[in-house]
């Protein structure tokens, strides 16, 4: 028996369009992002891929996207589980800063190391800084020493995988069609795991906003088709290029 897993990065956010490092800052979708989330619903419906359970992060851009995508295919009523472990990568002291300005100031190599290297985290954020979430009540249950002040992708893999194993895998094994509505980098971490992508190669992988990525998984929860399948491959390719080029304008 195979399992059905749908990964959905949130639609474009207010800060995506302003080219700002976002991370754990809780910005909402912009108008385009709302449209993308509604379009994701149409894509799911057209393939009869109707989720029976949804997992989201604790950030409104993913929660809002999940709601719109489910509402649009009459699945607004399914069980929802949320975890900080699906949050975007914490971008440390870069949160709130402009990507093009950081690229200009530190140069392409450092900029790309912070954005896409597997194990170079950006500088830590001050706990009480303007864009810090250290004292946000939604993370009160996360032990203080596990609440990140910055993260590289390796750190995201380490905090996301326990949730994959403890909460998402059991739903897949129970026969659910699982929707995971999350973020560019938490989904890169999950795709790295699913497709067994090397630490070097993951640097080249970008996830577009708002386009469902469908994985059929075998009994060992390995993809039947490596890389899965975007429900709108053309739009996905254009979206991936746009993400890769962020900071260049
Ligand atoms: O700013 C961020 O939080 C992420 C996703 O939007 O950006 P990047 O693609 O540069 O990792």
UniProtKB/TrEMBL annotation:
Record has Oxidoreductase as a keyword: no
Keyword presence, Chaperone: no
E.C. number(s) listed in UniProt: 5.4.2.11
Keyword line: Gluconeogenesis, Glycolysis, Isomerase
Any one GO biological process: glycolytic process
Site (Transition state stabilizer): 183
Residues of the active site: 10 (tele-phosphohistidine intermediate), 88 (proton donor/acceptor)
Family indicated by similarity: Belongs to the phosphoglycerate mutase family. BPG-dependent PGAM subfamily.
Protein name: 2,3-bisphosphoglycerate-dependent phosphoglycerate mutase
Lineage: Bacteria, Bacillati, Actinomycetota, Actinomycetes, Propionibacteriales
